[in-house]
Write a structure and sequence with these properties.
Chain lengths: 233, 233, 233, 233
């Protein structure tokens, strides 16, 4: 059994560029190519599009990620329906690997305030310690029962009912820059956001790793997203 | 703690009729109302539309269901993205109720064959008995640890990591007749289906209850769906 | 031949309420019904959801409109893909009615500035007059050629190639409050909008009529939309 | 003025492979890479997925086309909402080029039968001749009025109301293999189709050119689509 305190995000394949955003937008106004344009112009155009919520030019690109994260993160993730494609490891068809999520020592453990206005604060050393202990015991027991059921010949799809939502799963997730920005806008917390978000830490860990790839592949679009309050067009 | 061997489906609100399918379709060809038409004509038109994959006329209606089912069912359910709206009980914001899914004695427990060609067969009396015993023990232990973590002041969204995917959750799910037929086509098994499906039993239990409401509210559409191999248009 | 300077919007069917928004949201936090809640609480909850971009609770409702507008409006309209269902009169299957759009005398006719920063200003009396004259002549000639082609036995789908995008068409359009707010946010101009929009006047005429029905059916949601800068959650 | 009897389809960018379909599917059952697999296995797996309507593995790829076709084709095209992204030349922002669609001499001109059971047959030599003559005259007159309006300072978005739906437009359209197969299934006619389609000839001309690129980039997926009755999974 492995206890992991981090998520994994790999960029499996990608076809994305700031230039294609501009090309797609330019077809509305004139048909010439934009290849010869100066970079300043590209940046200005992208900024104009983002600010004015012209969203469709940001859809002509693709990012496929391979993500490893606990099931409770994927549960939230899959609620993003539009511009997202998923294929996930299935407990019906395969025995899940024995990897479980455990918060690292910096994960704020205590929730204060009421629904709609939660604040998370650090746990005491004792809380940190006992949380880990309880999680590990609970995970181990659930795993044992899962193995017991499988050994008795029970189908995987029935046996897995005992597995906790803290178990790690894996998926391919494909999106475009527009659907990715919508995700990032909701699933990251940033001082400069026009609309504040209060994401669960574990989904933000995934989102931050995805954002690093986005920034690398579409630097002007990312910069404009950041500059314009992280609002998806 | 409650152990439940069934799922719940209520129809919370509904605005759906066979007549509206025909009205929507008729706008393509002539603008008059169809109110005075004979029922035979309505049925023929619906049959024509379904058979010829004219899907859009089936979208002008709405069903909102309230569904109680285990998390592993909702995980599959939420992969239906288009024409579906969801709001689900959240383990981040509320303490989940202590209700867990346990297969009834008729649930085939044993999987035979290989991926892509599974067959499910009944378990032996002993398998049935021990499966229940193990599930109950495992659920009870997970619940205890969840309570322990909450008692120590750990945030709900962290504590719930130990909860099993067999715990019951609840959601509102809204769809239209077209997205519902796409769901039923994949999530029910029927001898007469043009394309055979091998749904997990627990999602089929949900699907069958939804289908009963569909049949009641749009009898001609349902009959045509059944007659045409249960293919969504 | 008729020349029309307005669009038509009827609400054909509707199942929508502010209460259902709150019920759908409440399932995340507690399962009790909200029937006994005071109206003030409903309004506060809706406001909280809209402001914090919790969009899904606004999807459990339905509006079906019947809209008559020129083809160039429907061309823009149909670019709204998500949460929208359409059935439109078809020039392939029916002879289109001889109704054409003509701006009324108040429609600003002259475009100043450059792409991305257009301003529309009123035309002179002469421009207004000659625009009407040219439109009417052109529409009449196109209609004559359409009739000529049909008389010679040419298929409707070929003959209609000569028909102008100013001809009136009709469609059913079904949406929910969330997709409707996204539409209104982009297709209406309002001083108080967080993000300014510059819609084409003719699509705004449609949008304003749809908004009146929305305001009537979901007054608290509409008020909150208006108060929060007309940003769709 | 140009009269064109064909449509244009270019593949602007593409990231698509049969291998990625299999990789995405394999994550459900086991996590190893499929790189070392024999081609026969890939083909068998793809065939299994298509036949059993496992659609999501076909979504992790992208095709961006640049398409030139008459507006009446784009009107039909844009009704494909899911898995499609569009940016089209806009008559609001640019003066449209003077290019118009005219059927070639082989285009069946005459429609026989009634709605739902149309058959198209060839026109007589005279019908072919006079159709061309009327289309050209009508297009030319509409274009003159458009130019007149522009010359008088009328805004492009108003002036274009006289332009016919037979005028050529251009767009970028991005899709994935799954949404592309859904399009091809409806917009092409093929003897071997499980569900017969009766597409308008001009949209089929576009579809056939798109299909040639699809076949080239994902040969095994295409072959399986063809072999399985051209039903999108």
């Amino acid at each position: 059994m492995k206890f992991l305190d981090d998520v994994d995000v790999d960029l499996v394949q990608c076809l994305a560029s700031d230039e294609m955003v501009v090309r797609a937008a330019r077809i509305s106004t004139k048909s010439e190519s934009v290849v010869e344009e100066a970079p300043g112009k590209t940046s200005g155009m992208i900024n104009f599009l983002l600010k004015n919520r012209h969203g469709t030019p940001f859809e002509h690109n693709m990012f496929t990620f391979r993500i490893k994260a606990p099931i409770f993160v994927f549960r939230e993730f899959h609620r993003h329906r539009i511009g997202w494609s998923y294929n996930e490891m299935s407990g019906r068809y395969t025995e899940l690997p024995a990897e479980f999520y455990e918060p690292d020592v910096y994960r704020p453990l205590v929730q204060e305030g009421k629904p709609g206005a939660y604040v998370f604060v650090e746990g005491t050393a004792e809380q940190v310690h006992s949380t880990r202990a309880i999680l590990e015991t609970s995970y181990a027991d659930s795993w044992d029962r899962y193995q017991q059921l499988l050994l008795q010949g029970v189908a995987k799809e029935v046996a897995r009912a005992v597995l906790p939502v803290g178990i790690m799963s894996q998926m391919y997730a494909t999106c475009n820059a527009r659907s990715l920005m919508a995700f990032l806008s909701l699933r990251t917390k940033d001082e400069t956001s026009t609309f504040p978000s209060y994401p669960m830490q574990e989904i933000e860990m995934v989102a931050r790793k995805m954002e690093a790839f986005f920034k690398e592949k579409m630097p002007l679009t990312w910069a404009s997203f950041q500059m314009n309050g992280r609002v998806s067009p």
